[in-house]
Amino acid sequence: MTRGKAARAPLFIALAVVVVFVAGGSMVLRAESKTNEIALASRPKPVTVVKARGTTFRGSRAYIGTLQPWVEAKVGPQFVSAYVDAVLVRPGAEVKKGDVLATLDCRNANATSRAVAMQARALDERQRASAHEAERVQGLLDGGFVSPNEAEQKSALSAAEQAQLLSTEAKLLGSSLEVSDCVLRAPFRGEIATRTIDPGAFVRPGSAIVSLVDRTIIRVTAEAPEIDFDVVRPGAPVHVHVLASGNDLVATVARRAPSADASTRTIHFELDVPNADRTLPVGTTAELRIDVGRPSPATEVPLSAASVRGSSASLFVVDGDVARARVVALEGEVAGKLFLDAALKAGSLVVTEGRALLNEGDRVRATLDDDASRSPPSAAAAPDGEGGSP
């Protein structure tokens, strides 16, 4: 029995070895069957494309302007220092020319003015008496009753009294200005813009209590680079977008500075915008756009489809299943859209996603972005063939 088992042992060992080899071989074959023998570089790369759209493009210049009132005044005392007695208006109030805006406590100025007035009255009476006396002495001089020296002294005294009277009257005029400065009136018809001081505060000459604006006409002021001197010529039409109210309007350049600012090298120009209904607020911001040149054919693509460097744009165009690198002249950019030279044909499939991994001649598997292809034309492709670029 023991001898039979010993004879079967090599057979079991050989059978186990065969099973191990068969199992190992099957595992190797299975692993090799899942190995990709095709190089990844030779497989088509997935990309997203859009169709380039034919349109027209017109260059433009964009500026940032400020809405200013036609007239503005900061109302406050100019001659006297005093406490504020009353402020009769608040921001938004409409006033007419001559309306009282504020009053000051000017009891000291009033007393000084009355004292000077009494002094002037006294000098006037004394000067009249001196003049009459000089006349009488002059009459006695003809009869030889007084000496010429005494007559001259009386005439000189009368002239001195007259000069002193004129000096006092000048002082009275100055004190009268101080008294009138205690009642602050509107210099023109307009609206109260700010109220910076309340009753009880002490003000000095030059302090502004309220500010008054007249915005029946708005001055839109802006600065342009010196190279745009001819662009902002008087009479040039300007598209204005008021950020505060959302109004869009068209105005013309009313005036332009003849020289550039010494520090910024910019040209100051202004537009006059009628605002009779006072719907446009002053002190706010406006976006200005001036069209230059004439509309020309162009091809529109999304901003994400190209890399812009200087005046050219680099992009990939799908030709069949192959990506072709293109460098096209850049016409302009508006609201996330690039406008390229018409050398890029309308309808070309331009890569928007996946172009960072592409090289010239790579095979691609393109997916058309229908939403981007069906998007409405941008503002640069206006129905009349005119567009703009910031």
C-alpha-based Rg, rounded: 46 Å
Give a short account of the largest sheet: 9 strands, mixed
Q: Given this structure, which CATH class of the largest domain is correct?
A: Mainly Beta
Please state the structural category.
Answer: alpha+beta
Poorly predicted runs:
379-390
SSE series = HEEEEEEHHEEEEEEEEEEEEEEEH
Our estimate of the beta-strand percent is 35-45%
Helix segment count? 4
Assign a percent range to the helix content.
Answer: 25-40%
According to DSSP, the number of beta strands is 21
Mean pLDDT: 81
Total domain units:
4
| Anisotropy-based shape | elongated
CATH architecture of the largest domain: Beta Barrel
Distance between termini? 104 Å
What is the CATH topology descriptor of the largest domain?
Answer: conserved putative lor/sdh protein from methanococcus maripaludis s2 fold
Topology of this protein?
Elements: H1 2-33, E1 45-51, E2 53-57, E3 60-75, E4 82-87, E5 94-95, E6 100-105, H2 107-143, H3 148-180, E7 183-185, E8 190-195, E9 202-203, E10 210-225, E11 237-242, E12 248-256, E13 266-274, E14 285-291, E15 296-302, E16 307-309, E17 312-319, E18 322-334, E19 337-341, E20 349-353, E21 364-368, H4 370-373
Parallel strand pairs: 1-21
Antiparallel strand pairs: 1-20, 2-15, 3-10, 3-14, 4-6, 4-9, 5-8, 6-7, 8-10, 10-13, 11-12, 11-14, 12-13, 15-19, 16-17, 17-18, 17-20, 18-19
Helix pairs in contact: 2-3
Can you walk through the features of this model?
This protein is α+β, with helices and mostly antiparallel strands and 390 residues long. It has four domains: 46-57 and 295-373, conserved putative lor/sdh protein from methanococcus maripaludis s2 fold (Beta Barrel), CATH 2.40.420.20; 75-105 and 182-203, Beta Barrel (OB fold (Dihydrolipoamide Acetyltransferase, E2P)), CATH 2.40.50; 107-180; 210-291, Elongation Factor Tu (Ef-tu), domain 3. The protein has four helices and 21 strands. Strand 16 (307-309) and strand 17 (312-319) form a beta hairpin. The longest helix has 37 residues, at 107-143. The relative contact order is 0.20.
